[in-house]
């Protein structure tokens, strides 16, 4: 609110009446005069002479004593002057004690002059005036001739108006009648003197009257006309002059007005503002030493005592004196180049008194002058304080306290004692704190802009230099230095008026840098070394600023919460995390694309390398390793926090590779043929046991009887082995990568390391599981493909077809052995046993399918069981390989099912029928006694499973079995 008041009042607004001064080392600037214009072309010289007339006149009539007339003869006896000065002007100045005025204003009693000035003063000692009146004449640059004429005129006036007080005399009017052109060196000087007095009368009675003019009164207009006429042609001032009589009547009618309409005892011709203030200013200016413009004369106490005697003529009082004196001191300080801090200190002292005066009166005229004067001072002070980093440095930091005090005091008076709005909202505003807050924020913003420009310049000059820092990193360093400089140099001073000075300063810097950082972050889309460096510098800067703010506000009421809330975090770590996640997504996208493209080109050639695994896997693992290394080389502290995102993505890419490496290779069910429908055999020859409409070719018969296989059989066994080796290689390398990742995590500088390092067992766990699952699937697919696809011509399509004794297992064993050799030399040692075991299991399963679901081309007698048992023994021996193959225990384990079925084949038909009835009764309960249910195919062959026993009966070549099946299930004799 206080800021709004200043904006309304127009702090520092230039007035029409200004003076050009030299400040800041000679730079010209305009300082507004707060009193306003006098008008009608009155110059400083005119005002100064008028002021001297008032000074001499008031001094001669001090103490209420009347002016004494001195005759011409008596006057001639005095050579030095026309009359001896009264006691008030004769006080000796040689024994002046230490100045009470200077002491009250906090100024040094002796001026700070240089050696040259001291020498000049020593030479002038013999000419030093002995009275305050004579000193005043010299200080006001009044010649002895002019002084003599003024005193002579005043004596003549006194002689003609004995007993009248000086305030009842209109001095310019009376002086006009006392002199003729012969009293001046030349006629031009006389005319200038006459015009000056007439313009003073016009200014005091018409332009700036003590009382407002009556619009119906014609006297002001008449006086204007007389003055205009006199400016063109001098008026006759003799006693019998008509023009002089008319002038007197008009002047006196205007000067003797009063508020109640009755003639006033005192005449008002020089007490209307701003004329009286300008005249009084001229008197106060005389308090400065002519030989040293920044030093107040040592005789200030005596001179001020005499000056104050003019108050009765000029309508001044102590309040106006304090205000005018403060302005004169301030103006002289500024005009002289701001080198004498004592003057500014004196202004501060006077402002304390002015503050008391402002509270004591609400006089509109005084308030108007007060507001204008303080606005000028405040405007000057704020011009420096709104950019105090440019104005004050180590050498003159003490001056800053004086300027802040001046600005704050002026602002408080303007707001608290003048503003009506403030009085309505008094409890809401702390003016001093509010203004200092504004100074801090404004100056820090300006200082920030300067540091920004400096960094830009440095950056441009070092653009082609290696290892040059990013612009915002350099700026962060500069702002850190600025913040600590602010804390150490300026904040201790400003804290007198603002309890959180340092906090406001760093909050401002935080906001300024935050704006730049926000623009920077919005412009980056990927993680770069420069981006990381900037964000790291921003994080460090923010921590430094927050520490300063917290330390500064430790003793505040809210503990610094307001300042910290005004510093929304940069969230540099969050930005880094976002960029790192973007970096991770980019790397993963590249990896996914690579996996898809290279898998399409992969031929799974076992000759590609001596390890017999796919080159694409090597590349995938290499890229993953490089990605991990690049991630942990990023100069961030949040590796463990962000690593799960990367790990999950890499794990999915590997799963994608593993999934595509095994896709299309089939499974066990892919190669297992579809089971044919149950049929029964009939009596007769073996080849006629199944009744058919025609005898198809073997391949056609198989297709019609057992259906087709659903697998993609385009992959060769060596290619499938390469796929198995590839997954095994990935599985092994995942352990190496896992150990490397644990090492990376332990080397990270983070508090989260322990949480992540302990979970090393979970690294790539999905890919590892997918590898194992893929290996098992590929091993099984390879085994069943060999048995049911690659060797189907000697196994499924040939084994035991027709006469058992003529279609035994030898051909199948020979080709199976060749395939086992290929597998053994191609597949990796770690998975060789697994693959061969699956081939053995597939061959055992295949044999059971031949015996239990071999279709209408197969039928077995009780005697055939011996041949089949012998063939199975040969099959097992192939896998045992005289002890070089699979372990006996493993072979025995997987042969249990086949051996149990061979026992059924060895049983006679009647025993089989009874066994079937028994297991059916156990499975289906009493209902199976009346009618045997047709058991469904479970695929789990077992002597205790009804469907298995039933199938043995279906393939038993004798009448008892055929009749049993006909009677109970009416099974057809053909497909």
Alpha plus pi helix count: 42
Helix content: 55-70%
Q: Cα-atom Rg, whole angstroms?
A: 59 Å
Major beta sheet, specifics?
2 strands, antiparallel
Strand count: 2
Mean pLDDT: 84
- Note the beta-strand portion: under 5%
What is the first-to-last residue Cα distance? 104 Å
- What spatial order of strands do you see in the largest sheet? 1-2
Question: Could you give a short description of this structure?
Answer:
It is built from 42 helices and 2 strands. About 65% of the residues lie in helices and about 0% in strands.
Helix-strand blueprint:
Layout: H1 2-9, E1 18-23, E2 27-32, H2 44-60, H3 72-76, H4 87-90, H5 100-105, H6 115-123, H7 132-139, H8 144-160, H9 171-176, H10 187-207, H11 219-232, H12 242-255, H13 275-285, H14 300-307, H15 311-314, H16 318-335, H17 341-360, H18 364-385, H19 388-391, H20 397-418, H21 420-424, H22 431-461, H23 471-494, H24 501-523, H25 529-552, H26 561-565, H27 572-601, H28 615-633, H29 639-662, H30 668-671, H31 698-706, H32 717-746, H33 753-757, H34 765-790, H35 810-826, H36 829-853, H37 864-880, H38 888-906, H39 909-924, H40 927-930, H41 946-954, H42 959-969
Antiparallel strand pairs: 1-2
